[in-house]
Design a protein that fits this description.
Blueprint: H1 18-39, H2 41-50, H3 71-76, E1 90-96, E2 104-109, H4 110-126, E3 134-137, H5 145-157, E4 160-162, H6 169-178, E5 183-186, H7 188-200, E6 212-216, H8 222-232, E7 235-242, E8 247-253, E9 260-262, E10 267-272, E11 286-292, E12 303-309, E13 311-312, E14 324-325, E15 330-331, E16 336-338, E17 341-343, H9 345-353, E18 358-369, E19 372-381, H10 383-386, H11 390-408, E20 413-417, E21 432-434
Parallel strand pairs: 3-4, 3-5, 5-6, 6-7, 18-21, 19-20
Antiparallel strand pairs: 1-2, 7-8, 8-9, 9-14, 10-11, 11-12, 12-15, 13-14, 16-17, 18-19
Helix pairs in contact: 1-2, 4-5, 6-7, 7-8, 8-9, 9-11
Bound molecules: 5'-O-[hydroxy(phenylacetyl)phosphoryl]adenosine.
C-alpha cells in the first residue's frame, strides 16, 4: 500500500533566490544559443543576418538582440528541419493538429523528457497534489502533448495515474466514482461537459473524493472558474503550455490561484509589443515570447507564442520566486473585427457567464448579411428557463445583449438555444464558427 504523503513535494528551484535563478538562466541561455547556432541552419542564418553571435550573449538582457522564431518557421522546416540532435538521440515526437495542411512537429531527447516530466511534476505539486492522489488524466494521449505530458509528471509525483485519455464521458464518470479519483486533468470545456453528464446521470460530484481540476490547453475565464467551482466543489487550476516549447508544464497556477508561475529555469519569458516587437516591462500587457533554456532536441529561441498576457510584477504570496503571468485570455490572432470593433471570444464568455440561468455552453457565429459582417452569440439555457414564458426568455435575452454591449460597445445578436444544441467538445472547444468564408 502506498502511504499518502500529506504535503506536495516542493521543488527548491521554484524558490531559488532571484540572483541565483538569473545566473542559472544566463548560464543556460549561453549554452542553448550556442547549440542552436551550431546545429540548426535556420538559427545560424538568422543570427548571422542580424549580426549577433552566441559569444555576444553576456547578460540576460542581451536576449533582446536575438531574432524571433515563429510558427511558420516550424512549418517551413517541416518535418525535422529545426532538430538540433541526431535522430539516434531523439526518443519522442509529438505534433500539433493544425486545422489545415501539415502539422508542426516537435522532438525530445531523453533529457528533454526528464525536464518536461519535472516541470509537470512541479505543476501538480503547485496545484496541491501529491503521492496518494489518484489523477484521472483525460487529456488526449497521442500526438497531442497533453496526455503523455501530464502522465509522466503525475507518475514522477508518485500519484496514481489513470491514463483514460479524452472522451467516452460515461466511462469517465464510472471510473471517477469506482477508482475514487481525487484530481482530473482535461480542458475546462470538457470538464463542463463531464459535469453536465454527471448531473443527467444523477451523480453528485460533490460526494466524490474529487477535489482538484488541472485545466488548460484552451483559454477560459475567471467566470468559468467560478461556475466550475460552484457547481462541482472542485478547485479549478489553470495550467499553460504549448507544443513548440514542450507541451503542458510551461506554467501553472499555485494554490493562490492568482496567475501562472512560469518554470523559468527551463523556459525564459519575455513580453513584447506584438506590433513593434519591442520588449515591454513587467506589468505591461503584450505577447508572450518564450526561449527554451534546456531543450536539446529542438531549442526554441524567442518563440512568439501569440498568447497575450503580462508578467505580474509582484512576488506571489506562495513564496515561489519564479515569476507569474496573468491568465491568458486571448491570442493576438483570435481577435474578431466586427463593424470596425475588436472583440475577443473571452470577453463574450465573461459577459454571458455572469448572467444567471446560463449554461457554460455557447458559440459565436460569424456570417455575412447583405455584405456586412454579422455576429451572433448562441447560448444554451437551462431546461427550466427554456420552458418559461416567452416574456422570461425575452428578458434573459435582453439582459445578455446588454451585458455583451457593456463589454464590446456594439449590439450583438443573442439566440437562446435549448439544452444540448451546441456541440460538446472532448478536447479544445471550438467557440467561433465562421460562416463568412462559405458565402
Ligand atoms: O495545448 C499544451 C497543453 C496541454 C497545455 C494540456 C495545457 C494543458 P498546443 O496544442 O500546442 O499545446 O496549444 C497551445 O493553447 O499557445 C495557447 O494559445 C493555448 N493554451 C494552452 N494552455 C492555455 C491556458 C497545448 N491555460 C496553445 N489558457 C497555446 C489559455 C491556453 N490558452
Amino acid at each position: 500500500m502506498k502511504k499518502p504523503a500529506h504535503e506536495s513535494p516542493v521543488s527548491a528551484t521554484d524558490f531559488l533566490p532571484k540572483d541565483k535563478l538569473r545566473k542559472l538562466q544566463l548560464d543556460r541561455l549561453k549554452k542553448i544559443v550556442l547549440r542552436a547556432y551550431e546545429r540548426t541552419d535556420l538559427y545560424k542564418k538568422r543570427m548571422k543576418d542580424k549580426g549577433i553571435f552566441p559569444g555576444d550573449i553576456k547578460s540576460l538582457e542581451d536576449i533582446r538582440h536575438l531574432p524571433f522564431t515563429i510558427k511558420n518557421d516550424l512549418r517551413d522546416t517541416y518535418p525535422f528541419g529545426l532538430f538540433a540532435s541526431p535522430m539516434s538521440e531523439i526518443v519522442r515526437l509529438h505534433a500539433s493538429s493544425g486545422t489545415t495542411g501539415k502539422p508542426i512537429v516537435v522532438a525530445y531527447t531523453k533529457e528533454d523528457i526528464d525536464i518536461w516530466t519535472d516541470s509537470m511534476m512541479r505543476t501538480f505539486a503547485a496545484c496541491g497534489l501529491h503521492s496518494g492522489d489518484v489523477i484521472q488524466n483525460a487529456y488526449g494521449y497521442g500526438l497531442f502533448t497533453g496526455g503523455l505530458g501530464a502522465h509522466y509528471g503525475a507518475e514522477k509525483l508518485g500519484a496514481t495515474v489513470i491514463p483514460i485519455s479524452g472522451g467516452n464521458t460515461e466511462r469517465q464518470l464510472m471510473i471517477m466514482q469506482d477508482f475514487g479519483s481525487t484530481a482530473v486533468c482535461c480542458t475546462p470545456s470538457y470538464f463542463t461537459f463531464l459535469l453536465e453528464r454527471a448531473h443527467e446521470l444523477k451523480i453528485d460530484i460533490r460526494k466524490l473524493p474529487l477535489r482538484a481540476g488541472i485545466f488548460g490547453a484552451e483559454p477560459w475565464t475567471e467566470e468559468m472558474r467560478v461556475h466550475i467551482e460552484k457547481t462541482s466543489g472542485v478547485k479549478a487550476y489553470d495550467i499553460y503550455g504549448l507544443s513548440e516549447i514542450t507541451g503542458p508544464g510551461v506554467g501553472s497556477e499555485c494554490e493562490m490561484q492568482n496567475g501562472l508561475h512560469i518554470f523559468e529555469d527551463y523556459f525564459y519569458p519575455e513580453i513584447i509589443d506584438p506590433e513593434t516587437g519591442k520588449a515591454l516591462l513587467d506589468g505591461k500587457e503584450g505577447e508572450l515570447v518564450l526561449t527554451t533554456l534546456c531543450k536539446q532536441a529542438m531549442p526554441m529561441i524567442r518563440y512568439r507564442t501569440r498568447d497575450i498576457t503580462m508578467i505580474m510584477p509582484e512576488q506571489c504570496r506562495c513564496g515561489r520566486t519564479i515569476r507569474r503571468i496573468r491568465r491568458i485570455s486571448r491570442r493576438s490572432d483570435d481577435m474578431l473585427i466586427i463593424r470596425g470593433v475588436n472583440i475577443f471570444p473571452s470577453q463574450i464568455e465573461s459577459a454571458i457567464l455572469a448572467v444567471e440561468g446560463i449554461l457554460p455552453h455557447y458559440q459565436i457565429v460569424l456570417s455575412k448579411e447583405k455584405g456586412l459582417d454579422n455576429i451572433e452569440v448562441q447560448v444554451e439555457v437551462t431546461e427550466k428557463v427554456f420552458s418559461d414564458k416567452v416574456r422570461a426568455l425575452e428578458d434573459l435575452q435582453s439582459k445578455l445583449m446588454q451585458a455583451l454591449e457593456n463589454v464590446t460597445s456594439i449590439r450583438i445578436g443573442v439566440r437562446l438555444v435549448a439544452h444540448q444544441t451546441i456541440k460538446r467538445s472532448e478536447g479544445k472547444a471550438k467557440r467561433v464558427i465562421d460562416l463568412r468564408k462559405q458565402n
